[in-house]
Amino acid sequence: MSNNNNIWVWIEQRNGKLMDVSLQTLGKGIELAKHLAGKVSAVLIGDNIEGMAKEIICYGADNVYLVADPGLKLYQSRAYTRIISELITMHKPDILLMGASNIGIDLAPAVAARVKTGLTAHCSDLQIETIDNKPQLVATIPGFSGGMIVKIVWNEIKPWMATVSSGVAEKPDFDETRQGAVVKVDYEAKDEDLQIQTVEMVEREPASMPVEGAAIVVSGGKGIKTNEEFKLIKDLAEVLGAALGGTRPARDAEWITTDNLIGSSGKTISPKLFISIGASGAAHYTCGFMKAKYIIAIDKDPSAPIFDMCDLGIQADLNEIVPCLIEQLKSS
Amino acid sequence: MKIVVCIKQISDPEYFPQITLDPETGSIQRDKVPAILNPLDENALEEGLRIKEKFSGTLTVVTMGPPGAREVLDWALALGADEAVLLSDRAFAGADTLATAYTLAEYMRKMVEPDIILCGNQTEDGATGQVAPQIAELLNIPHVTSVSEVSYVDESTLIAKQNIEYGGYLKVKVKLPALLAVVKDINEVRDITAEGIMNASDKEFKTLGAADLEVDPGCVGNNGSPTSVIGTFKQEIDRQKEILTGTPQEIANKVLQKIHDANIL
Ligand SMILES: Cc1cc2nc3c(=O)[nH]c(=O)nc-3n(C[C@H](O)[C@H](O)[C@H](O)COP(=O)(O)OP(=O)(O)OC[C@H]3O[C@@H](n4cnc5c(N)ncnc54)[C@H](O)[C@@H]3O)c2cc1C
Ligand SMILES: Nc1ncnc2c1ncn2[C@@H]1O[C@H](COP(=O)(O)O)[C@@H](O)[C@H]1O
Q: Among residues A82, A146, A226, B250, which one has the fewest Cβ atoms lying within 10 Å of its Cβ?
């Protein structure tokens, strides 16, 4: 039917609301479709979701496969996997992207295994490159050594699948006048779908300011070792009105939660100001804020790779410099 | 109850900055880096041991990896696993998540038919979190990821708490056989005992290769991997890289000046 240009995005909805990460992923799908002169289809599953299908078209999808049923209101992993897999078998998309929400990363591997295709996670970018005279989807992931990136491709099996983390792509503009097709797909529950049932979903609001969308982000790493040190970082964030993020070791030490983890396994952000404190600058971390407008790094090790990735570097102990910064900010 | 726990040996994250990638294959060169058990797999084993204590049965630990991965299996035997299986073969090398899941699933399908499979939610070196759901799917059984709590309705039905964003969760009712991928909150891992270490040497340990499992050679290792690395590249980083010097007060002063000049706040 087509050559590389049939791009699908699974759009997640929770309680009648489209997930931001899904819309960002749709933005990536639209961008890829432009390169390939292709079409973007969304797959939307849930109950009472027709209004959302229209919304997705306004965000730029050419058509929406809509699967609505009261039994699909909440995420049902086996049912969703079967629905998407059957749609893939029937329509043979070339590329399938899913937003890397907690539910997205539960669903995507199951779909990939069922249709036996390749899936990449944690890419810092996805683009089309010409390889052997053919357009090929290329995923970029951070390498281990600082400043290195690794490129991953798929073999001939389609669809090429990827999960896309929060902030990697931009949410497309909303255009009320856009037109597209809504294709309704019937659903009938099978026994196998019911081997697993989500009986309840409890959603929570972020307990602190989320790093995504924040103008200023203060981010701490393994250099934070005591409560006093953490308090300094927190106070700095507070005087700046900044969100507080951190590295994986900072998350493991429970200074921050996974929701505020910066990097390839967490959030990708583009604040106006990013201040990194006590973090060496591993590629898996720095890829999460490379789009920040201005980057300040504080680390006591002058050879830390972070100093090759910042605009302003301070080679000092955080205990010396952060209190001075807080004081001056307070008085200015 | 037949319980299988999947564990993986990984490079110690403390040494990540020293890891290099093979410029040809793009695979990780781990030679000089010490290996540890993936931290969440400890929680997976702990949960397996608790299930065994609750319902009785046998607990098998399995890993796919090089011969040296035996270390983590010995540890699991000492903690209380009944038997350990190392899936090791040159043909398994270079596997992506699908080929890894296929190999583990083939072992389980042909040799154990588990009632419950436990995995870590993700590994710290690959961190894809894809292997667990893919094992389940290839066995055609349900899976739950990000599991932070489990309660049992009866021996064949459980309720899992699946973490989602910002402390929210799903309550998921699952019929066994099923696979659970666990996060750290699920339990406190027990300590290893001298007695456990002594008992471990009497327990069964098997190494199985591609021929033993009668796997499809096109589905394992590099051959069975639909994704592959095409190379590593240096990233272009265009930043001012200005290093400030002076006393902390002077530096703080300059920082404020810079922020002001750059017109950020
Ligand atoms: C597949 C994969 C995915 C990953 N995903 C992520 C991710 O999304 N996000 C992430 O962050 N990591 C991720 N990692 C881990 C990443 O590779 C690094 O291990 C991690 O970012 C290092 O964190 P860190 O800089 O805080 O710790 P370190 O590298 O240990 O750095 C600590 C720094 O603190 C400095 N320091 C110590 N004390 C002080 C002090 N008093 N004052 C000032 N400086 C001080 C030290 O000089 C050092 O430079 C991932 C790894 C893998 C393999
Ligand atoms: N080679 C392997 N051998 C055994 N179990 C594995 C292997 N790779 C991954 N797993 C299991 O799958 C989980 C998730 O791994 P990953 O998808 O690599 O993040 C791990 O915590 C293990 O429980």
A: A226
Dihedral sign for Cα atoms in the order B234, B221, A84, A14? negative
pLDDT above 80: residue B127: no
Contact between residue B124 and residue B48 where contact means Cβ atoms under 8 Å apart: no
Query: What is the distance between the alpha carbons of residues B97 and B100, in angstroms, rounded to a whole number?
Result: 5
Residues of A with Cβ-Cβ distance to B228 under 8 angstroms: 152-153, 155
Q: Is the CB of A318 under 6 A from ligand 1?
A: yes
Residues of A in contact with B98 (CB under 8 A): 112-113, 116-119
Beta bridge partners of A11: A44
- Residues in chain B with CB shorter than 8 Å from the CB of A316 are 248, 251
Both structure tokens of B194: 């001298």
Q: Where are the domains of chain A?
A: 7-194, 216-331
Question: Are the C-beta atoms of residues B180 and B116 closer than 8 Å to each other?
Answer: yes
Return the residue whose CA atom lies nearest to atom 20 of ligand 2. B120
* B59 three-class SS: strand
Q: Which chain A residue shows the shortest CA-CA distance from B227?
A: A154
Q: Is the predicted pLDDT of residue B20 greater than 70, yes or no?
A: no
- With a threshold of 0.90, tell me whether the complex ipTM lies above it: yes
A141 CB under 6 A from ligand 1? no
Homologous superfamily of domain range A7-194: HUPs (3.40.50.620)
- Tally Cβ neighbours within 10 Å of residue A269: 25
Distance to chain A for B204, nearest Cα, Å: 31
Structural domains in chain B plus CATH codes: 2-219 (3.40.50.620)
* Three-state SS at A41: strand
Q: Do domains A7-194 and A216-331 have the same CATH topology?
A: yes
CATH class, domain A216-331, is: alpha beta
